[in-house]
Structures are given as structure tokens and as C-alpha cells.
Amino acid sequence: MAALMAILKRDLALAYRQRAELMQPMLFFILVISLFPLGVGPEPKTLQLIGPGVIWVAAILSSLLGLERLFRDDFEDGSLEQLMLSSTSLPAAALVKVLAHWLTSILPLIVLSPLLALFLHLSEPMYWALLKTLLLGTPLLSLIGAIAVGLTVGLNRGGVLLALLLLPVFIPLLIFATSAVESASMQLQYSAQLAIIGAMFLFSLALAPFAIAYALRVSQT
Amino acid sequence: MTVLSVTNLSVVKRDRLLFENINFDVERGTLLYVKGQNGAGKTSLLRVLAGLVEPDSGEVHFCQQDIKDYRENYYQHLVYFGHKLGINLTLSALENLEFWCKQHQVTISVDTIFCTLAKLNLVGLEDIPVANLSAGQQRRVALARFWFKQDAKLWILDEPFTALDTQGIELLSKQITQFLSIGGSVVVTSHQALRLDYPTDEITLEYRI
């Protein structure tokens, strides 16, 4: 347990010291979303229609931008090697690293989202639905993303490959999330969509740590 | 007592057979010096011994237990020092070592870390990011691990003397000899001649095409 706490503390401290690097995905997120009303025009109806999709697409793309940070530095400087050679369980360590990553690079996006929802003219029920889908869905991005980062960390410039690997996997999430917000806009129940996203999240929470650990071991070869 | 025993080990890397069916034992209190040209497979052998890479065939046993099945037990008694230092450049020497100790379940006081860093000639550099230190100093920070893990039974060192000055080499050699004399085992590769007053076993890997 102490070892896992140490990983969390270290990763948070590192994120704080590399905050310039952390800002990039966040800026990207804000820029994309703030450009849409300018490009599409200020018509509230149109904006409301595309809003949830735009926010979710921007969230997925910006999470992809920052995803490589998860293991790249540790792989390159050998910290990952030392982590594997300790008696700390690797799946648990991987889960903690994913948690640290989510806290430092995705949570800020969620915190920013009310402001951006305002840009896109989302109504209040839509906003609450969006927030719920983001809270349930973005950990999934981090967990599944970490598997792909683990697999590609040994390759140079795995960035494009990473996006190609991950985007198809994220499509179901995108569909259910935006459909939840759309239902909310029509004052309909959207608990079914939330339940599906929640199920996907729990499923990946249970299995992804082992897949990440395996991917990291494979990358050492 | 045999600490590490290797049976019929073969490793293929990028369609090139690095070594085939090698067998050796490392006894308690002995040093194994792995020799060979560049590209002969020394690092690959050491990574297999550490369990970082799976061999294509053969087995590695630590205290009669297959390292694949008893990873946790093995890693409680192993210190590995590879080409990559395992030191984060943004963190300070102190933070790096504290983290490493917690990671490896080594309980150690901050004072001991300070003392060890002083022994390694890093006085006054404990709190600045490791990126600001020279290559040799960065290596010294990483080498401090060899002063911490008391219950280690096996050290695996891959080119530990690179970038160290003569004083650093002497310091590390002394620490290795001391570890051997209390019953530890060491596997080491080095292109510099080992200057240890301790009997060494040698194994030479041939470069194969």
C-alpha cells in the first residue's frame, strides 16, 4: 500500500512540475470548443444540436494528446524497469498511475466543461447529463488508453498508431454519451445510456490493469 | 548454496541467435563476470536473468524457484542496475531515492540517504533536479541503491562503471567486494577490467552472425 501511495504522490508531484506540458491538451480542448460557435454561427439551436458531440470529440482527442505522458518518461529513463523489478504488484501500480493521469489531465477538462457548455448553449439538463457521462466515461478513456500506451511505448513515435488503435474503441462510448445528452435535451430519461457507460467503465476497471501490466512487460522485449 | 541457476537458456533477438543452451550457476558469495564483444548479448542475458525479458527457451531459477512463478520473492532479493538509470530527471536525488526505497519496500531514514549521498560525493546536490547533474553524478545517484537494500541476495549490474571517475569506480568496487564478503552474489558485465580483490567466475559470450 505504501508503495502505491508513493507512486501516486510521485506522479502528482511530477505533473505539478511539468504543468506546462499538462496545459497543452487542456488548451487544445478549450480552443477546439471555442472555435465551433465562431465557425458554425451563433444560432442556439444548431449549437445545442452539435454541442454534446463537439465536447465529447474534443475530450477524446485531447485525452489522446496527453496520453503518451502516462508511461513514456518512465519507460525512457528506466523507472518502469525498476518498478517491474520491485515486489509491488504491477497491475495495481498501473491502476494507480492511470488514476494519477486521470486526476491531472482529465479532471481539469471536466472542471472546465461548464464554461464550455455555456459557449455551446447547452441547457441545464443537458449540462448535467454531459457531466455525468464525462465523469463515467473519461476514466474509461484513461484505462483503455493506458493499454495502448503500454503496447506502443517501446516504439518511437507511436503517436499516430496510438490514435489509430484507440479511436475505434472509443466510438461506442462516444455514441452512448452523446445520445444520453440528446435525450436530456428532450427531457427524456437517459439512465440506460449512463448504465451502459458505467458497465463499460467497470468492466475495463476490472480487466484493464492486467492488460496494461501485460502490455508493459511485452514492451520491455 | 546456489542462488541463481540457469538451464539451457537461449535468446533470439531480431532473428539473430544471441546465445544457445547456456548453463551456469551462481553460488552464494561469488561473482560472475559476463564478458563479450558489443552485440554479443550481455545486456540481453542480464535482462533475462532479471526477469524483464522472457527467454526463448530455458529457465532461470532463484534459490531453486523458477523466477516466473515466484517473481515477488525474487524481486525482494534483487537489485538490478541497467543501462537506463531508473532516475527521473525532474525529481531531485533525494526524492528519487526515497521513491525507490518505498517502491522496493526498503525502510530507510532520510539521514541514511543523506549519508549515502555524501559518501558518493553528492553533498549539496540532494535537492536539485537530477537533470542539472553531470552524467557521472546521475549514475552515482542511481548507484546509491546498492547501499540501501540490506536483504538483497543478488545484484545484477550492467556496465556499472561507465561514466564514473576513478574514485567512483573504487567506491563501487569496494561496495561490491563488501557485499560478496557477507554472502551476496553478483552478476556483472563491464568493458573495463574489474579491479576487485575477489575471485571471479567468468563466462564469455561469442558474437554470432
Please explain how this structure is put together.
The complex is a heterodimer of chains A (221) and B (209). Chain A has 221 residues and is an all-alpha fold. Chain A has one domain (2-219). Chain A has helices at 2-17, 19-40, 44-67, 72-77, 79-84, 90-119, 124-152, 159-185, 191-219. The two termini of chain A are 28 Å apart. The model of chain A has no long low-confidence stretch (mean pLDDT 91). With 209 residues, chain B is an alpha/beta fold. Chain B has a five-stranded parallel beta sheet, with helices on both faces. Chain B has helices at residues 42-50, 71-76, 93-103, 110-119, 135-143, 166-181; strands at residues 2-13, 16-27, 31-36, 57-62, 65-66, 78-81, 154-158, 185-189, 200-205. Chain B contains six helices and nine strands, in the order E-E-E-H-E-E-H-E-H-H-H-E-H-E-E. The model of chain B has no long low-confidence stretch (mean pLDDT 90). Chain B has two domains: 1-77 and 151-209, Rossmann fold (3-Layer(aba) Sandwich), CATH 3.40.50.300; 86-150, no CATH class. The interface between A and B is medium-sized, with 26 and 31 residues.
